[in-house]
Amino acid sequence: MRTYPNPHAKSDMEREASRPMLSRYALSVVLIVLVLGGGLEMLALWWLQTPAARVANLSEELIMAAQLTGLVGGYLLLIEVALMARLPWLERRIGSWLASLHRYLGGYLMMLLTMHVALVLTGYSLSLGAPVSTVLMGVLQTYPDVLIATIAYLLLLGLGLSSIKKFRRKLGYERWHAVHLVAYPAGVLAFGHEIAMGAQFTRNAFARDGWTLVNLAVAAAVLTHRFYLPLKRHVRHRLKISHIVAEAPDTISIYITGVDIDELNAQGGQYFRWRFLARGVWFQTHPFSLSAHPTENTLRLTVKGVGAYTRRLKRRLRPGQRVLADGPYGAFTAYLRRRRRVLLIGGGVGVTPLRAIAETLDGNERDVIFAQRASTEHDLLMVDELRRMQRQGKLTFLPVLGKRGKNPRDDPMHPARLREAIPDLREREVFICGSPGMVAATIKNLRRAGVRRTYIHSELFDF
């Protein structure tokens, strides 16, 4: 099979030189240790600022417990906001893991804040011998900072409810994303309450000043990376739609041109949050992965009309329209590869980032199989491009067609079928992208087929 040089590929020496000192796993462990360490510091602050004489009865114990849950809850809220800053040096290394951590901590945050409210009201109700409702109305009327904290709690409660899978699906991505933005004002309101009424901060000027500096640092990171830098990149690169290509009746590829796009340092497999300045869609931002490796002045994304927004894009977009792009984000790139033999498995629009990753793997040095999962041949995407890459010796294209069926052995991705189609499966590094169900099922089958989990990388097309 004749092969051709790949201008986007890097040699093993270049890849090793560009690898960070800490692996993804090691960096994740370091971050977890730092988060836990910060939590222990908050616990120590509470312990040192809580005189034993204060804990004399049940009401005092409840109030002290309320202070602890409020302190740790405020810390978790700060961590959640910090994760929303999307720091590039973390995003490029452990992007999907950060999103998972954000979702994981969110549940504990709401639990702690709810406990804080319940413990405060119950403790003062016992202390004053008054009903909880009377205590609540009294503190709201007497202490403005409590009213501010109540507003912050209600905003965060709404945010937490919107993140429950059942409600999230009904809201849709755009409404869900808009609701998530309330975390910013809620964080500001919560900080005001903590400084004004948090016993650990009102009694300890050093702790108050330190907490203020940490909050200011997080605020600066958010303002810089979520607002200032995207605006600066927009002015610098002047992105606009060059042309649009119909890949299938319900799928289009959008080519974006601009000035010095290579300065974005985007890699195949990463994504941007796109805002197309066209009628009917300009007010929405959506994440789409790059479907080709970026060139000096061109980016490409491929969109399938699976919802109201994506179908509207096909009707509204025209060449020459301006585009705002926030990114690149994500660590799902060829830099994760450690083995010579690679298997790429994509389903639906999950094919697009894998197509871009495949472009960065040199067929001269790599043994690359691109497996595309689909029910029928009609459902396959980017077939012409993948077959052209196969003719050029860059990969082997393997359509995996058929429905799963009731019998597990009828599944085209059954472990036995995978081993039959790819005899050296256990020796390959695997990249998977698709819907949550598709990715979970594929990982399960790969593990049963003998592929080690450490050599399986996945990206979910979900929110």
From TrEMBL:
It is found in: Membrane. Residues 234-335 form the FAD-binding FR-type domain. Its cofactor is FAD. It is a multi-pass membrane protein. The keyword Transport does not apply. The keyword ATP-binding does not apply. The chain crosses the membrane at residues 25-47, 62-83, 104-126, 146-164, 176-199, 211-229. GO terms for molecular function: 2 iron, 2 sulfur cluster binding; flavin adenine dinucleotide binding; metal ion binding; oxidoreductase activity. GO terms for cellular component: membrane. Its main location: membrane. Keywords: 2Fe-2S, FAD, Flavoprotein, Iron, Iron-sulfur, Membrane, Metal-binding, Oxidoreductase, Transmembrane, Transmembrane helix. This is Ferric reductase-like transmembrane domain-containing protein. It comes from Actinospica acidithermotolerans.
